[in-house]
Specification:
The complex is a heterodimer of chains A (316) and B (390). Chain A has 316 residues and is an all-alpha fold. Chain A is 72% helix and 0% strand. In chain A, helix 7 runs antiparallel to helix 12. Chain A is globular. Chain B is of the alpha/beta class and 390 residues long. Chain B folds into 2 domains: 135 residues, Rossmann fold (3-Layer(aba) Sandwich), CATH 3.40.50.2300; 199 residues, Rossmann fold (3-Layer(aba) Sandwich), CATH 3.40.50. In chain B, helix 2 packs across helix 9 and helix 5 packs antiparallel against helix 10. The longest helix of chain B is centred in the first third of the chain and has 24 residues. Classes of the chains: A mainly alpha (316), B alpha/beta (390).
Chain lengths: 316, 390
């Protein structure tokens, strides 16, 4: 039983950075833009969040900087695709390459400035960010360890995903955003400002991705900067968007499953799963989901219709 | 709109130009001292092919580059005389070739390749450029004229760090984050030597191994480390490049044995000791020989006596008596009395005859038997020592 609880707990911790990335990308795609720059924005968030945490020793400022960094990356993408109508795929890939290289380059400078040693956040800040049980709730057998013994960013990630779901499905602004994502021309005719709506959600989505990077650099590695800390997680997040059918609440379960794929090989030894097989699983499952979705032709479970195409009023 | 587009494009282009000039200002490498005994040939150039960036700190490439810097200082080479090629993926044959060709074009007459998979490319290039000396680290290939191989008996140091771990553990479970699986003799031999060190002071302790299949992956190393901690391990050793396992141990309030550099600075409350490389010992020797024209293609397999292999200073986290136990075993290794992979073991501080067994019960070396030969140690240790659980 303890083994199972440990496995699930580890899966949650491994899945949370994916959840931030997935939620961010869902917000972006729901407004009609496919931003493949998730990895890059996570890198930017990881670097700036860590840098701010290192120098200001404030969790709030670190998170704000990470959010702003992801948002800044998304701004480049939004200007290119929404205003200049550049190809979304290419712009997103460029953002990934830019963000990865930027964070690694300045990450190395940061190590050099620290005398060649990997910089570490102050014990005060790592203490705040450590995994610790919530009073009372954390004492419940099994459930306490599983659900109420994480670091605060884990709850932040789940909170953001739930909020994003409520916003998309229960508010007027969310409805407008979905309208823009599905049929920008119709939304435009109905008097919705398409450009503004797209900008707002691309930037918001980017900021949330940035927080995912910050989860890695601030909390996951015990508050020490690691080169290659994001290491492809942004790409798995993109795959998870499809897996979750563009639904942030399903994404919570999806990240738990994908997080499980990442830790199971170290924990279920008797299975003897080849590591390469584990690395492959997220993509195989995503492909399967795509196939199933296309067979079922469900309207709610597919990519927003306008996603991937730039909207230009004069083209109507 | 069109006008704006052009303006914006121009602006973005300008930003890029500035970004690039900003990048080109930063350079790695240190100023070298001038004091030197050897007469320096100002035209002699050394090339180094690194798998990652030495500026990353702490890890494998950093350790190699510290060796290059030490060589530079010892021989008085200027920065222009050392050509570094960084971030050369060792599985990318084309990139490896280009890096080597660039070194040769820049006039290098001696090239060090620091990562395993450069081996075949270097062998090929060595045949193509007979006037250039190729020295390849961690592999096993060489030729009969201009290519040799260099490596070291790091297992000696791993044995000693096992003593520190064995004395520290309370749960009797010690974790080991391994980069490669049982087929990799370098990693597996290291695990075995470590386990034998543990057994010499704590015969009941078990070693739990998790394999990441990557030399450098903070993500997988952290996840493997946490899995081991969840199993109840209270000391984590590692044969992988990042500090993630040590930091993971510190987060849980337990202990760790690092690798490559002194990781006490990364996990001050957890780290005990680390096996470390002083690559400068070999780089200085080889470069000096090449400059003086008496380099030979003899393979180099350095040990603790040479100073190539060493231990980082013991931290204050070590259990009482660690220093003495390590010194005693170290003396036996330095004198050649004990060679680790042989039919002997240190029991209660005394060297006695004992079967060297794997964890399936097979006897690898019978009690009193001879030490395994070097080819076996570097290439054919594909079994785990009896106390290893994998």
């Amino acid at each position: 039983m303890n083994g199972i609880i440990n496995l699930l707990t580890a899966a949650i911790r491994a899945g949370i950075p994916l959840l931030f990335g997935t939620t961010g990308e869902i917000i972006t795609e729901k407004s009609g833009n496919m931003n493949l720059g998730v990895e890059g924005m996570m890198w930017l968030g990881a670097f700036f969040g860590f840098y701010a945490g290192l120098h200001t020793d404030s969790l709030i400022l670190a998170l704000l900087c990470a959010f702003a960094a992801g948002l800044g990356g998304a701004l480049i993408y939004a200007v290119l695709t929404v205003s200049l109508r550049a190809n979304q795929t290419v712009a997103g890939l460029a953002l990934t390459i830019f963000g990865t290289a930027f964070a690694n380059f300045f990450g190395l400078r940061m190590i050099a400035d620290n005398g060649g040693f990997l910089p570490k956040l102050s014990p005060r800040l790592t203490g705040i960010l450590a995994d610790k049980p919530i009073p009372l709730l954390g004492k419940i057998p099994y459930i306490g360890k599983l659900l109420f013994s994480h670091n605060i960013l884990v709850y932040l990630g789940i909170g953001i995903a739930v909020l994003a779901f409520l916003y998309m499905n229960k508010t007027r602004a969310g409805l407008r955003m979905r309208a823009v994502g599905e049929a920008p021309a119709t939304a435009d005719a109905a008097g919705i400002n398409v450009t503004l709506t797209k900008y707002i959600h691309i930037l918001l989505g980017g900021g949330v991705c940035g927080l995912g990077g910050a989860y890695l650099s601030l909390a996951f590695f015990g508050g020490q900067w690691q080169n290659a800390c994001v290491d492809g997680q942004g790409w798995i997040a993109v795959a998870l968007v499809i897996f979750a059918n563009w639904n942030p609440v399903k994404a919570i379960l999806g990240t738990l499953l994908f997080g499980m794929f990442e830790v199971i090989r170290f924990r279920v030894d008797w299975l003897n799963i080849p590591p390469a097989f584990c690395d492959m699983l997220p993509y195989v499952i995503t492909t399967l989901i795509l196939v199933i979705a296309s067979i079922r032709r469900s309207r709610e479970r597919r990519q927003p219709q306008g996603c991937g195409n730039n909207y230009f009023r004069e083209d109507r | 709109m069109k006008k704006h587009t052009k303006l914006l494009a121009a602006l973005l282009a300008l930003t890029l130009v500035f970004a690039f000039t900003a990048c080109s200002k930063t350079e790695t490498g240190t100023e070298t001292g001038t004091g030197s005994e050897t007469a320096v040939d100002p035209n002699f150039k050394v090339g180094v092919i690194h798998i990652s960036d030495p500026a990353e700190g702490a890890g494998y490439t950093y350790a190699h580059d510290q060796g290059i810097v030490a060589m530079q200082e010892a021989l008085g080479l200027s920065d222009e005389q050392v050509v570094r090629k960084i971030n050369i993926d060792d599985t990318d044959v084309q990139a490896t070739k280009i890096a080597i060709e660039e070194c040769i074009d820049e006039g290098c007459s001696l090239i060090f390749g620091t990562s395993f998979n450069y081996m075949n490319t270097m062998e090929e290039m060595a045949a193509q450029y007979p006037d250039v000396i190729f020295s390849h680290g961690t592999g096993y290939k060489s030729n009969d004229s201009n290519m040799n191989n260099y490596f070291g008996r790091i297992y000696q140091a791993r044995y000693l760090t096992g003593i520190a771990a064995g004395l520290k553990t309370q749960s009797g479970k010690i974790g080991y984050v391994a980069a490669m699986g049982i087929d990799n003799a370098e990693v597996t031999g290291g695990i075995n030597a470590f386990a034998m060190g543990v057994a010499s002071v704590n015969p009941d302790a078990k070693i739990y191994v998790e394999v990441t299949n990557s030399w450098f992956s903070p993500d997988l190393e952290k996840k493997a480390a946490e899995a081991l901690l969840d199993k109840g391990c209270d000391v984590l050793a590692q044969h992988c490049d990042t500090t993630a396992p040590q930091v993971a141990a510190e987060e849980r309030g337990v202990w760790g044995v690092g690798y490559n550099s002194d990781m006490t600075k990364d996990a001050p409350k957890a780290h005990l000791v680390a096996p470390v490389w002083n690559w400068g010992v070999y780089y200085t020797k080889a470069t000096k020989a090449a400059m003086e024209g008496n380099w030979t293609n003899e393979n180099y397999f350095g040990d603790m006596n040479d100073g190539l292999i060493d231990l980082s200073p013991l931290s204050e986290n070590c259990a009482e008596g660690t220093q003495e136990a390590i010194e005693a075993a170290k003396a036996m290794i330095l004198s050649g009395e004990y060679k680790v992979f042989e039919g002997k073991a240190i029991v209660d501080g005394e060297l006695v005859d004992k079967d060297l067994k794997d964890n399936k019960g097979n006897v690898i070396v019978p009690a009193g038997g001879e030490v395994l030969d070097d080819a076996t140690i570097t290439g054919a240790i594909n079994w785990y020592y009896e106390s290893v659980v994998a």
